[in-house]
Amino acid sequence: MAPSLNTDPPSQTQKKKSRTKWLLLLCLLLVATGTASYLLYSGKLSSVTAGQLQTYLKSFQTDSDQQAQTLSSDSTAASATATKKSTAFEEGLEAYRLSQFAIAFEKFTQAALENHPEAFYFLGRMHQNGEHVSKQYDLAFKNYTKGVAAGDVKANYGLGQLYRGGLGVKKNVKKAYALEQVALPAIQARADSNQYFWATRLGTAYSEGLMNLPVNHEKAFHYSSIGAQQDYASAEYNVGVAYQKGQGVKKDEKAAFTWFQRAAKDGFAKAIHNLGYMYANGLGVKKNEAEAFNMYMLGAERELEKSQYSLALAFELGKGVEKDKEWASIWYQKLAKKGNTDAIMRLAYLHYNAYLYPDPNLPDVQDLKKALKWFEVAGNKGVGKALTQLGFIYYNDFEVPQDMPTAIKWFRKAAAQGEHIAQAQLGYFYLEGKGVEKDFQQAAQWFKKAADQNNAFAQNHLANMYYYGKGIPVSSMSAITLWRKAALQGNSDARNMLWKLGFEVPSAPSKTAAN
């Protein structure tokens, strides 16, 4: 059963554009120094927002915190060395549960100096995830290794994660499985003893099929619930996802929303983002785009890429905030620097569309050169649609001189990645001899590749080639079959041919397709 919370989030009013820009600019400046979270929660930004963002998270706080259970010694032969009692370690574990990472890191360091075996694992994890400290996979590896040497077999799990993801070491999934198998019995024992951290890790393993365990959503929910009932934010988030997706438990969006609230109270970024998504779509809560925007802003400040992307999209489309393409561009560029291809494509189209439909108030956005730059960046990262778009720009953009060799170069790259629009365009070039020598066989080959992906333009042209025997043997049946497929997509040329030949023409196309 989902926990009940007596406090509801305060209603949100639309912020003025200038106030929103001020807050976002300050967040952008503070993200690099890691001080934005402190300012948001310490009240130093209250004069800007009247406490809207701050109060939202505070409203989820509960009146009491459950104490984390003291870890018992490992029962496996591989960890026969008894785990040392350590007040510092226990204090670190409690602080970690509450997402108080600065305190946790200090206590775990103190415990490690006392040679507490399990402290090394948590120090490694904090270096791996960038919790209070910057991500340093080499230090994560060293601490996990020290943990294993000190007798904590569970530290093998941390090493396994590094090898599984290729984090600071050469990726080796087979080795990751072997290390995780060594750790599994001890993790299972701790989880069955209701120890919040390891129960949550085991729940994640069952959810994602890690540690060579079969995917089992019921067990995943069971173990995640152990951590969630002890107010561990990561587990609360996992339980929320289970309710949201109906995995291991009956789907309940209201329960999901409540569990995400609980995880958000400790600043858990993924939970904050999911609250934004649920507000944006009215899932488990009344739709509120302004509140969704606030959640995305909080998630973005915590460097969560999904939130940063959603925030940029909100600015671009005017969802929950006044439309502002300049701010959209700022956030897309922040993501583009991280190599986020979705953001790169949005940024490219943002500039391209502004160039097609000029706005005198957006001189920095309506820039064709910037559009071409970002399309090329995306194309070089393997985004086929970007390559196709570049091909069309150099082929028939009204302000870019036609450059057929360059256009064909980009279309070929896109076609090689399976982009059916580019394949169809190459077929057309070979059919008409545009930029290349006429070659009906080449045209038919490219049209067939695109037609097999249900491209109506290619289906119609390939049908014509079958009907008239251009580059391929005559086949009226093949032609009629292809015309029917194209006609069902609304291709007017195909519909006309069927009508002229006396065949039944689909009365209502299932979807509109460009000719």
Written description of the protein model:
This protein has 515 residues and is mostly helical. It is built from 27 helices and no strands. It has helices spanning 17-31, 36-42, 46-49, 52-58, 87-97, 101-113, 117-129, 137-149, 155-165, 173-192, 196-208, 217-228, 233-245, 253-264, 269-281, 289-301, 305-317, 325-336, 341-356, 368-380, 384-396, 404-416, 420-432, 440-451, 456-468, 476-488, 492-500. α8 packs antiparallel against α9 (155-165) and α24 (440-451) crosses α25. The two termini are 54 Å apart. The model is unreliable at 1-19, 29-84 and 510-515 (pLDDT under 50).
Give a quick precis of the structure.
This protein is mainly α.
Portion of residues within helices: 55-70%
Summed over residues and divided by their number, the pLDDT gives a mean of: 84
Total count of helical runs of at least 4 residues: 27
From the alpha carbons, calculate the radius of gyration and give it in angstroms: 29 Å
Q: Structural class of the helix and strand makeup?
A: mainly alpha
Structure summary, number of beta strands: 0
Shape: elongated
What is the N-to-C order of secondary-structure elements (H for helix, E for strand)? HHHHHHHHHHHHHHHHHHHHHHHHHHH
Largest sheet: none
Q: Span between N and C termini? A: 54 Å
Question: β content, as a range?
Answer: under 5%
Q: Uncertain regions: pLDDT < 50 for 5+ in a row?
A: 1-19, 29-84, 510-515
